[in-house]
Structure formats: C-alpha cells, structure tokens
Amino acid sequence: MNQHTLSVLVENKPGVLSRVAGMFTRRGYNIDSLAVSPTERDDRSRMTITVDASRFPVEQITKQLDKLINVIKVRDLDPENMVAFELGLFKVSTSECPRAEVLAIVDIFEGKIVDVTRDSLIIQATGTTAELENLEELLRHNGLVEMVRTGVVALGRGNTTT
User: Fold this and answer.
1) Fold agreement (3-77, 83-154)
2) CATH number, span 83-154
3) Cα separation values, 128 from 76, 83, 92, 149, 150, Å
4) How confident is the prediction for the chain on average, in pLDDT?
5) Domain chopping of the chain, boundaries
6) Angle between helices 58-67 and 16-27 in degrees, nearest 10
7) Of the residues 35, 46, 51, 140, which has the fewest C-beta atoms closer than 10 A?
8) pLDDT tens digit sequence for 19-33
C-alpha cells in the first residue's frame, strides 16, 4: 500500500469537515484515517488524513482540497520527516485468556491498563499504525472483544508548518 499522510490546515468553522468529506465522496476517494483537532490558534483546526495513493493520485487529492473554501494549506507529509502516532483502546475478555498473558503483551507494547473488571481489561496504547496493528493481532488471539483507534495524527519535523 502506498500510504500518504496529508496535513490539512482549515478554518475552524462549522461545516468544514462536511465539505472535506464531501469532496472525497464526490470524487470516489477513500479516507483510510481521519483525525481533526484544534491547533495553537483558536480560529484554525488541523485535519490529518491518510489515503492510499496506489488507488488515488495524491496530487489530484491535494489539488481538490486546495480548491475548497476554508482550506488554508494542504501538505503531503514526507514519511521520513514527520512524527506520526495514533491511540488505541482495546477491550479484552480475561475469561477466555489468562490475565498474565495479556499483561505481558501490554508490557511489550508499553501500553497501559485503564480499566479493570472481574472479566475484562481495557488497554490504552499509542504508537505507529504498524505497532497498533501488531498489538491488535496479538490481542485478537487473546480475547479481544472490542476496540477503537483514533487514526493517525502527525506533524512535520523542523520549522516547516502546515
């Protein structure tokens, strides 16, 4: 897969997310991951969007985004010059698998147990997409019941801003 991470700086106004998502829908593009958050300025938000550029030309996507009202700047982040992480929450049934096995996996991935009940654990983990996919795969064999992931958040390294 030819994964690209787009950092899209937008005006912090109602309807902007809908316009961006609508552009993807109209063009038939698929969003692999989407995270939206405030920035250091109250009047701006940052969208971090990951797309598979082997299916859709990333240049075409960035040009279409640039045309949208409320989009300030679009940047295709260089994988070698960005810091990217995501957060995952994983609920594991401990009635199917010994807690010690799950705790050992959590320890390897530097995760944290954030909720404990008699028959389940909720694990919080942060890392790269690949790290969370590996953790998910191991937990699937050890009682994974439910999960949610935030999607990638990323910033370019150095003084360059989006």
Assistant:
1) yes
2) 3.30.70.1150
3) 18, 9, 21, 11, 11
4) 93
5) 3-77, 83-154
6) 140
7) 140
8) 999 999 998 888 999
